[in-house]
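hey so i finally got around to running both of the ones u sent me last week. sorry it took forever, my laptop kept dying halfway thru and i had to restart like 3 times lol. anyway pasting them below in the order u listed, first the sequence line then the structure token line for each. didnt double check formatting much so if smth looks off just lmk and ill redo it

first one:
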Amino acid sequence: MIAYLEGRLGEVWGNSCVVITGAGVGYEVALPAHSMASLPEAGGDVAFHTCLCVREDAQELYGFATFEERQTFETLLSISKVGARTALAILSTFRPADLRRLVLEDDVLALTQVSGIGKKTAQHIFLELKYKLKTDDAPQGAVLAPDGRPGSVFRDALAGLANLGYSEAECAPVVKKILHDEPDLDVTGALRAALKALAKGKA
């Protein structure tokens, strides 16, 4: 298993690049979109945590900026019907922390943002993620509900806005953006910011 690779950047194309090691060996590595976007100029130093995927007709190396991202990739691969390319597409859309947040918020439809994933596939992936993805260190407002089950500032803020007459379709995108920009807000702070944003939108 090739678990880590560092060297200088060679050619770049599509979602892949060549990493040339000090020994002069070049490895083709497929990367998530955000890693591709942050590559240095050709000849610059690069380093990736990697996962080698072996198929009947090919051996493909996937690279990640962090060990956590690599571990999340392997978790996605453990889900039935999720191949390496689909897992890479998911991590091109969502970082590991984003996926943990989606699980805590029960936001299954968010996965349909990934190219090639429809509603039925998203439900299948989400169901397995709920059991396989660690969420005990999830950021962005994750808390425990009063009964001790996983809950979130997001859900509590939505409930508060519903009591004030707002629909979930109207306020969910607003609350998501607020918690993304200010992940440490409590329910009161999130409600206050959401009401201000909703009022501004209607002005």
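and the second one:
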Amino acid sequence: MNYKTFLKMLITLTTIAVLSAFVLSSVYNLTKEPIKKAQEQKQLEAISEVVTNFDNDPFAEKMIITTPDKKDKLEFYPARKDGNINSFAIKTYSNNGFGGRIDLIVGFYIDGAVKSFKLLKHGETPGLGSKADEPKFKNQFDGFNPNRHKFKVKQDGGEIDGITAATITSRAVIDAIQRAVDAYNNFNAGK
């Protein structure tokens, strides 16, 4: 290969790379805001599902709270009705799911008992671990206070019925909720 051929190939490839980078960055900039708004809408819908009725904007009042070990920062969303907090939601996660990380929003009554939760993102097995978002599993959390009960699956000596054939997912959901409870307790203690 002679020098001119090499130079032409180099210029052509560089031009293609620069144009591709420009197109990709343009598409990213065009879609960044709509994607962010869609994610916020999905999260607001999840908050609406897991807390008591509210008339405030939970995003405007969002706070960041930390776990006692200061390793995790979670999003805390107060739900207000007529100016008074009647429940709250915490965005939390667990890295212990069968398919890896599980992200969820957990709703709590004002006394700290769990109201409900909503899976936001997971890689659990369809038809097994994905059943964590079904009423049969979720409903047993309503009114359950992790500070007063054995917050583990029954196989581990706790009071929660795990999902059949998806104990790892059940444990991961409990782990995520416990992370939120610990962060809230830490926040409540003023730490």
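quick thing i noticed on the 2nd:
Strands lie at 63-66, 73-81, 84-97, 100-109, 114-121.
anyway thats it, ttyl
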